[in-house]
Amino acid sequence: MHVPDGFIDAPVSVATGAVAAAAVAVSLRGARRELDEQAAPLAGLVAAFIFAVQMLNFPVAAGTSGHLLGGALAAILVGPCTGVLCVSVVLLMQGVLFADGGLTALGVNITDMAVVTTVVAYGIFRAVLKLAPNRSRTVTVASFAAALVSVPAAAVAFTAIYALGGTTDVAIGKVFTAMVGVHVLIGIGEAAITALTVGAVMAVRPDLVHGARGVTARRLELRTSTPVTPGRTPAPASPTAPAGAAAPAAARTVTAAPAGTDAEAPAAAAPRRSARRVWAAGLGAALLCAGVVSFYASASPDGLEKVAHDKGIDQKTEDHAAKDSPLADYGVKDISNPRLSGGLAGVIGVGATLAVGTGVFVVVRRRRAETDAEAR
Description:
The chain has helices spanning 10-34, 39-54, 71-78, 80-98, 106-131, 138-165, 172-204, 265-268, 276-291, 303-311, 338-375, and strands spanning 58-61, 64-66, 220-221, 253-254. The chain is an all-alpha fold and 376 residues long.
């Protein structure tokens, strides 16, 4: 759904640019609360993974394809504010390096693909979690629903922006129907990718999923002796037991509190598990998608391109300012082999997005640490 230059007129492009800038500024402040020592490098990886999976266009209808937008996935894995920044970094790298998405339309793309998808998705995600707050498996279900709704929501947002600043005279009702219709189908693919990814991380390291931190854990009964029979009084502590020894644990219950509460304090002292394996697996998956699997992606135009062509809203499309980039159109210039050219471009894109994203999030994390130190 990358909007090219020329679709939206200058006043509305400037206005959406201001909206995008404000959203990024707010997200930078909000990300300080979401990023901890493990989340900062993982957020950069999430951005790189989204970049890679966006190269995998999948067919959704005759002559039409779709690709991941990533707002829902980023918001659930690393938080809504950090999620906005992740997708914004991806859009910036795509526009500057690969001539994908207009530079004058960058504000439109960030507003639509980063802000709208993330906000809508996280709202749906939290609403679904409230229906079954004691079940961790609900996180995956909520991820599916959030991603499913976020894509047509972005289509609605684009239609609204086009109604305000479209450069061609096209019936908005037709644009709305076509955009929402095709993006509902694309949303199914987005939902499947998001749910599978979140479910995979939940299976191995649920503590790394930001959206799962608010899920109330089930109560656990820890019994270290024979259970108490109804009507019987638990045996008193042995007179030979040392002073201050704990009473029998037959009826003792420990309740796990939701993440972020004071009840978590004792557990906080436990050493943190390394996220290196998850990071390495995620990076490997991103490189595989961008460097190898992308060659087999659908060559059909995506939902916006198809609708734009069919409805005539692409009549004033302008050439991209970076059309002569060595990586334009996701290929390395002067490499004639399409498999090698596209794969190498994808790998370069993953590396560049990872470097820029990680740099941004590490700086935000350090700023949080400085602020905490000053507060003490």
